[in-house]
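INFO worker-7 received task bundle
INFO bundle size: 2
INFO processing item 0
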Amino acid sequence: MNERRLLDQLHRDGPTSRADLAKLTGLSKPTVSAALAGLEEDGLVHLVGEVSGRPGPVTSLYDVNAGSAHLAGIDIGRDWIRVAVADLRGAFAGRTDSRNTARTSAELGTLVGDLARTVAAQAEISWASVLCAVVGSPGVYVPGEGRLDFAPNLPGPDLAVPLRAALGVDLVIENDINLAAVGEHAYGEGRDHDSFALVSVGTGVGMGIVVNGELYVGARGAAGEVSYLPVADDAVLLADARVHGATEAVTAAEGVVRAARAAGLDLSTAKEVFTSAAGGNPAALSVVEGEGRRIGGLLVAVAAVLDPELIVLSGGVGRNLDLLGGAIQRRIAELGPLRPRIVASALGDSGVLLGAVAHARARAWELIFAARK
């Protein structure tokens, strides 16, 4: 317990003397010295410098030995796989972004394992020093049954077994948008907010919820599955709505492309639609207006249920707030008095990966202290 308090303090403040650690933690100086000695012996803290030039003896400064072990964060999407290996402070030692070419869960496990080991090798890190990995993927992982629910964009629900075999380390699988919210809380727009929602609109639609500084996932991990909210759009293909959810069918990237083609635009991606709108194309602007209205309706539902301090929009579609913002606000105004504060995520494509690393950092320390008992 004392060692954990000292490490938490060093995490927050960086290099600190024994005397200052005693003051900050309320522990006695002998207790601090004994705990530091044990941590130093195990390689978890180290002497990083000295302060001299003032009255009294030279003061030694201690800090977390962040490179004593490593962890992996992994973001598995339909089109891309992003992998990072980081130290115990979460600082990236290496990263790669690679196309997801896997057609089966076995192929996906092998691909992820190979990418992770390649990143570690390029950073000159032994894979044996990696304590754990946190994987963000679409859907909801059911630990007792080892399957992913609500993940139609991935090849098969049985991803956990090949991933564990390929990585060979302690593994946590978490919903990707939940991890994006963790990343936003640690590094992005949610840093100064205890309660906020992250709504992602990209290849899919999802939401991560932070309440009182903690991720909220619900009774079965399905909190935030807003892709299944009903919509008033009768044009939704019912079969697609059953698989992906009605809101996702009309609001995600493929829905934007479908709307663009219905408007006579020969465009293949949502990015092309937004680029055309930014260039002033009237038909593309009309499609973006409709998309903004759909997102605005979704955000009113979020605000009505959660009343968050902030809603962060992310995803390849959602973060285009410069083009979507006006339509979103107009739709919100039409639907009642709720006025949530809305901002675009500044983390780009890295939100899920940053959240996975933040989660893995906490998990690594849990494993370290469990092994010391």
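INFO item 0 finished
INFO processing item 1
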Amino acid sequence: MKGRLGKYLLSGLMIAVLAGCQSKPTDRGQQYKDGRLDNPLELVNEPNAKGKPVNAKDYIDQIMKVQSASSSLYNRNSDTFLSVEQWIRSGGDTRTLSQYGLSAYQMEGMDNFGNVQFTGYYTPVLQARYTQQGEFRYPLYRMPQKGKRRLPDRAGIYSGALDSSLVIAYTNSLMDNFMMEVQGSGYVDYGDGRPLMFFGYAGKNGHAYRSIGKVLIDRGEVARENMSMQAIRQWADAHSESEVRELLEQNPSFVFFKPEMYAPVKGASAVPLVAKASVASDRSLIPSGTTLLAEVPELDNGGKFTGKYHLRLMVALDVGGAIKGQHFDMYQGIGQEAGHAAGYYNHYGRVWVLKTRQSGGPLFTAYTSQKAPTLMTSPPGTYQNASGAVLVNNQE
């Protein structure tokens, strides 16, 4: 989303056994039907995937938003967009891609067996008031003017170190405020009947980030394998306000926001995002505007892999400081239901980059045909996602 290079976002457990493991785990949707792949993007005659895309309409809607918001981005990719649309209207059979001038490049995945990592992010909606009243006593702040002195850390801000003139809303949940920081933006409902106000990312206080998910694991409060956004919220619901505040203060970094009237949720490409039809990617491997055909694992309501997959068309329209290499952060949409899905996603699926022949192969910049040294930047048991926040097992 806009400003995502500086924002925080929930992230998931990097399954260390994926790399060079003989047991070949399958609990998070991993597959091994295509054999070993030795290139980041490998040209294949046709994807080894059954079925047709389940979100053809959403993909076309997303392309229309690209065309409206960024003519230059649309024009750079128009050949592919138009060919994919023709392919969709003909039935979307993966065996017929070449008939529409489309080449499919399969991604090698995190383990060289095509298992690409999927995480999720969303746009929260917070209840708030303009002034402090009753349960609405937790402030959200606009970005202070930068001076010579360093801005206070989270504990200092919670203790009132910032001027009250910087407050742009009072919410009824300190944890909700924190989760909106994690996502980097959100909508605020002031409860007065007016349209929701979009709170975009405005900056950070400059202090180092520390994962509260890792803190809970290190303290033995939540098992590593059970860590998720839902697990953190459950922990918070079972503890006092002072205990929740103490936990959040373990992360000294703090995010500021800017209110924007009638603003849609946009990615780093300045294009409004369509849920489950857009992703954040590593632009050195997957440039903005790239069309992806993805076999995404289906999760149940408890976040467990069902054994089924959905074939989806998505466009790379966002970025993230920690989305590196064979990893995508899927935009899940707005509100509680989207947040529920985003909080659980840390799974693996197969992905093919679709491009027309006349546009040539995928354009690499910093990423080469050899393994990028930044592909796995976090220690085993952790990983960073689109915001650059180091989280554990799908959580902050």
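INFO item 1 finished
INFO post-check item 1: The chain is about 20% helix and 25% strand.
INFO post-check item 1: The CA atoms of residues 61 and 123 lie 19 Å apart.
INFO worker-7 idle
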